Prior knowledge:
alpha/beta; Alpha-Beta Plaits; FAD/NAD(P)-binding domain; seven-stranded mixed beta sheet; five-stranded antiparallel beta sheet
Amino acid sequence: MARVRVAVEGMTCERYEASVSAARREARAAAVEADFRHGRASADFDGDPTALAEAVGRAGYTPAETASGVAAASEGGYDLAIIGSGGAAFAAAIRAANLGGRVVVIERGTVGGTCVNVGCVPSKALLAGADAFHTAASHPFAGLPTTAGRPDLAALVAQKDELVTRLRATKYVEVAAAYGFEILHGEARFADPDTLEVDGRTLSAGAYLIATGAEPKAPDVAGLAEVGYLTSATAMELTEAPARVVTIGGGFVGMEQSQLLARLGTQVTVVGRLAPRAEPELAAWIALVFADEGITVLPHRAVAVERDGADTVVVTADGTRLAADAVLVAAGRSPRVAALDLDAAGVKVDDRGFVVVDDELRTANPRVFAAGDVAGAHQYVYVAAAQGALAAENALTDAHRRMDYTGLPSVVFTDPALASAGMTEAEARVAGHDVASRVLELKDVPRALANRDTRGAIKLVADAATGKVLGVHAVAEGAGEVILAGVYAVKFGLTVDDLASTWAPYLTMSEGLKLVAQSFTGDVKKLSCCAP
């Protein structure tokens, strides 16, 4: 028996819901539900979906689109059971609910997943505060006082916690209520390929989605576990900044958290390569910014962590010994799969433990899908959300949709920010392109001059033969805003000439993208301020 959804025009209150439900029962449908707030009704029905639409019409309402899901509700009554409650899980639940599916979201801990609780939202809230404090103490404008007093980290963290609590309620708990899907609290594990157990309760569904996310990974460094360390999550709970911190890892989490702590008065040393995935010209700019702010970067591997009296000592591969009050680990993430008993479900994982999925986000078990960080690649919340929605659609309608990552952006919220869309120059060459690229320093961007902050550059990567834009990369204030134009350029196949001849508002950082495109054919230093 398939789940069938009909959009209904004219339902304006609960009384109309009852009328529509009665009409659908007349057509001998089971498990009838109607929702006047969203203008839809659904039912389990073994027959021609148009019969349900006709029954709705006889009740005096206007049936619109009719959609039939191929995933039958199981004896447990659910079309889709989702393990986890973060970005991927909620996007999947919303899409499934809009398709008329019965959905349950299973969460063993706090609703909301990484992003709202210990990831994007809290980290960016704290970074914004640290940036404001740093600007107050060191802005470059003549005649204006630069005083900031002492930071109160406890107050900043409390403000962050209030925001997290509010968004968890409005963007997760209340959203679940609005769409009418259930949140079941408990630990889920697969009993067999077709069944879940949640704290001893058996639960079955037409399809399953693993969306349990990932968590900070501790590197294999001697003594680290015994001495102890901070993670990206626990560091954001500190109410007093440590005097000295050694950060193991120079990726996006390590960069953001290191600059955050440094701006609040901590002496920070980063152990590892800084911005390892960035274009080298832009990684060099981040290194200069960190050096100017007193952050030491040692491009070596940490090999041991020891206790020396009150100090924690990090030992690097070249023998350097770094004394600290705390060690911050920012060396990647591990999937949360240990409790799921994936073997019982016939779900495969890769050599790092991430769930293996195909282009449709289906696992080795055709009834089980995976989305978000637990599936390994592109660990951004907006990717998780897109994957979750796509997986739900494939699970309920057998749509065979595939993810398209063309122009995928990334943003590191340092100050200035580091942002990217599309391929790096090295990636483009590996892909077989004859590459042409240009780098424009911010000293040639009028907005940066007006801001008195010319730290950074914009790089454009293009195919030399066609001029097609392959990648856009930037270190700049507001680079995360600028990069959206880069996403459009890459995704929709714009050329360098397209960017060079497209309108760009003067005295914005986004004008830099037009200028770097113009630099392919001329010297932008010889242009007047607002030359076309």
